[in-house]
Amino acid sequence: MTSNSQAAKKLYIKSYGCQMNVYDAERMSDVLRPLGYGLVDTPDDADLVILNTCHIREKAAEKVYSELGRLKFRKSDRKAAGKQMILAVGGCVAQAEGEEIIRRAPYVDMVFGPQTYHKLPEMIARAHRGTGNVLETDFPADSKFDHLPAPEVREGYSAFLTVQEGCDKFCTFCVVPYTRGAEYSRAVDDVLAEARRLAASGARELTLLGQNVNNYHGLIAGGGEWGLGRLIEEVAGIVGVDRIRYTTSYPAEVDDQLIAAHKNVPELMPFLHLPVQSGSDRVLQGMNRRHGADDYRRLVDRLKVARPDIALSSDFIVGFPGETDRDFQDTLDLIDEIGFVQAYSFKYSPRPGTPAAVHELQVPEDIKSERLKVLQDMLNVQQRAFNDDCVGRRFDVLLDRPGRHDGQLIGRSPYMQAVHVEIGPEKLGEIVDLEIVSAHGNSLGARLATAENTEGEIMETRATG
Ligand code: SAH
Ligand code: F3S
């Protein structure tokens, strides 16, 4: 987010967790701008501090309390200097723990869930009045999207756009259905209007967001609904939109139209984050995932037929209650077979209120750690091999930020790898044909593709993994 230290009041937002929180933080700042709040980069001198929190794993939630401990002192320093600092906790910890936050950290002024931030001006007015802590964790009957101002035109070549929110899948390990509420899709016209505004302000890449984004079913004017595949086709037709991504998908809900979009829409990047969680049918069943390991294999095959150069990333949980060595081996086998170019993996973390948290067969911590290490070593080898394999290939790279030193820019390959290149600043915001010359664990080095290094080199459609 761009900061604005000239504004009358200083707003500091710290986001944890998923990309949806990044999007939410931008919208919170949109809501607060008319009240004179401008974003700043540190909480030190802020009039309003919002921690936009994540509750997905225990560690994520605990981070909030340590940050609050630090902010308490800043708040009292400001008070001693005769100034106020409103301290607010938003996001999923706020939704899940509400009153508990006020009990553990009574100096917090406001606690509000992810579905209520359109009411921020009203909450701030109440906090100013100083009539006790403000707690807003209801799921309002009306959608917050109907009350939010149009997003501010922002500089940025790659932008997030929330199209769907909430989740009704109730995976037995997951808090999202409780913190984000029921599935909700924004109307097609609203999404398209926001996509056009973002494109007009210079965004060339749009990432459509949702907890279950591929279960998007947005109403269209005049009746009927569109799924995600159809929406992507339409977004691709917007002038200025050169690249589209979407995240996060639920495997059991990838439909034919979405697969067809991967075949027919060149703007849709050949990279898909498709969380499988485990390779064991027994564990997947315990997780209530609604897909088996072979369903996942078949789905990947169909995606590869539609788009041969597609590469996959995934999420994994190790040590889900009842997971045996055999189950874990099934996960390793699946990874070995599919080949992931990137992945996020976690030790199972019991979350209060979820069914798996009270399962009798919790896996001991040391076994979880061992399994995580084995799994991550394997995934790292796959990622590294994919990156190494990219050397010599040519990619269109969207150069979206300055590099560490003058004369360098950084961008994203179609496969989301960070690509560094020595190139003039005038190329910022352009999609440039680059030849990959070096590979590292998490990034690639490149040079401008020239006529000499062009011969017979276009291998972008090679199948991966
Ligand atoms: N909607 C997405 C995921 C949302 S949460 C999906 O369909 O999978 C992001 C990731 O966090 C999950 O994919 C899962 O791998 C991990 N996660 C969620 N709850 C967890 C828990 N209790 N313990 C460990 N990891 C968890
Ligand atoms: Fe969570 Fe499963 Fe939904 S992981 S977000 S309950 S699809």
Topology:
Blueprint: E1 9-15, H1 19-32, E2 37-39, E3 48-53, H2 58-80, E4 86-90, H3 91-104, E5 110-112, H4 120-129, E6 134-136, E7 158-162, E8 164-165, H5 176-179, E9 184-185, H6 188-200, E10 205-209, E11 218-219, E12 225-226, H7 228-236, E13 243-247, H8 256-264, E14 271-273, H9 281-286, H10 293-306, E15 311-318, H11 325-338, E16 342-347, H12 365-390, E17 394-402, E18 408-412, E19 418-422, E20 431-439, E21 443-448
Parallel strand pairs: 1-2, 1-3, 3-4, 4-5, 5-6, 7-10, 10-13, 14-15, 15-16, 19-21
Antiparallel strand pairs: 8-9, 11-12, 17-18, 17-20, 18-19, 20-21
Bound molecules: S-adenosyl-L-homocysteine (SAH) and FE3-S4 cluster.
Your description of this structure?
- The chain has 465 residues and is α/β, with parallel strands linked by helices.
- The protein has 3 domains: 9-136, Methylthiotransferase, N-terminal domain (Rossmann fold); 144-389, tm_1862 like domain (pyruvate-formate lyase- activating enzyme, Alpha-Beta Horseshoe); 391-464, Beta Barrel (OB fold (Dihydrolipoamide Acetyltransferase, E2P)), CATH 2.40.50.140.
- The chain contains 12 helices and 21 strands.
- Strands 2-1-3-4-5-6 form a 6-stranded parallel beta sheet, sandwiched between helices. The chain has a 5-stranded mixed β-barrel with strand order 17-18-19-21-20.
- Helix 7 runs parallel beside helix 8 (256-264), helix 8 runs parallel beside helix 10 (293-306) and helix 11 runs parallel beside helix 12 (365-390).
- 41% of the residues are buried.
- S-adenosyl-L-homocysteine binds at residues 56-57, 173-174, 176, 211-212, 248, 250, 275, 277, 315, 317, 346, 348-349, 351.
